[in-house]
């Protein structure tokens, strides 16, 4: 068996990442230089093996273990063990509950009207503010996504936009601090982070209190009632609290940035924007908002969202720990090795994505997709630890985009540089500011 290639083992991982201009660029450089399987010094875990080939990734797709050290920064948010890294025997029943709550299409449909109302409220606010100058998309869309998941899975807790905004800001404070603490050894503002975490816990307590006060609900609302489902499955109160917090975290900024990157790419590609808007007009007719059944007719919009998440995957990386020796082509990866998933670099692998940097939604027509390896496109991750919220996220994103594209034309505010930064999710550093013009086809 061949030795896995890579840079010198004593290279300083953190320095190499900075020199390359960030982890993603480092990944692209490593894979261009050494091939699809690379051993490299990953800050926090010593050596890791990165795999950028979708066919080789198949050999890792059943692993149900994440490396503890890489996800340590999330541990302070959890009281019952880090949900990112709990062992398979605890994870399997927990995942079953999460999927029953998050992936049920009847539940998506049952909540669609409320999602629509929340998105329309945001569009109304934007319409009022549009004349005053550019709108910061990412911030508002993260807040909207948070309100949607809270309505969907938690029943209540974040009815007001102000609370939602405070929660989004608190998560940002906590993640920035804990990530810096783990990867740079800095404790910039411990007190602020502790206060933000205490605030988040108080919001979770409020959600649980409201849930107790409401009692048992019926019908579709119950099927998506996360707290009731976890409790019925015998999960401990601490695990339930942790799951509520992690659900709020996992669902809001990911979906928020997926929508804002989509609007960004459409603004940069006016022909695609026109085509997407024309499709929305055709499917909605003179209605201002879609119905659930309309989503499957918005096929171009779906391709646009998928292409956006290829170029700007909201979760750009993942990782597993090999639980046994694994064969990756000509290499053997010993048990215990950290396997790094460079989702973003996989999405730019030129072997499967010709002219990979080009925005081209046509890559996702059924014809173009046929024959492409299943793991060439993995914005929601891989296997038993993949995202439980993937189908819900697509419903939310496409609904919100349909409403927004029906109502507004989006133009990037001049003079801004949009810089993607990797801070757990792939975020635009200074947000994305757009000028909005009402479209004539939209009803007031
Ligand atoms: C566009 C939106 C979203 C994207 C791109 C996204 C992406 C991801 C990715 C890449 C992972 C890691 C997967 C892996 O390690 O293989 C993940 C995990 C997860 N996501 Fe999402 N996500 C999104 C929205 C959501 C939503 C709406 C929820 C709802 C609660 C959610 C809940 C979760 C959970 C609970 C996990 C942990 C999975 C586990 O450890 O079993 N995500 N997501």
UniProtKB/TrEMBL annotation:
Protein's UniProt keywords contain DNA damage: no
Binding-site residues for heme, renumbered to this chain: 387
Keyword tags: Heme, Iron, Metal-binding, Monooxygenase, Oxidoreductase
Needed cofactors: heme
Top-level taxonomic group: Bacteria
Residue stretches spanning the membrane: none
Gene Ontology MF annotations: heme binding; iron ion binding; monooxygenase activity; oxidoreductase activity, acting on paired donors, with incorporation or reduction of molecular oxygen
UniProt similarity note: Belongs to the cytochrome P450 family.
Annotated protein name in UniProt: Cytochrome P450
Organism: Actinomadura rubrobrunea
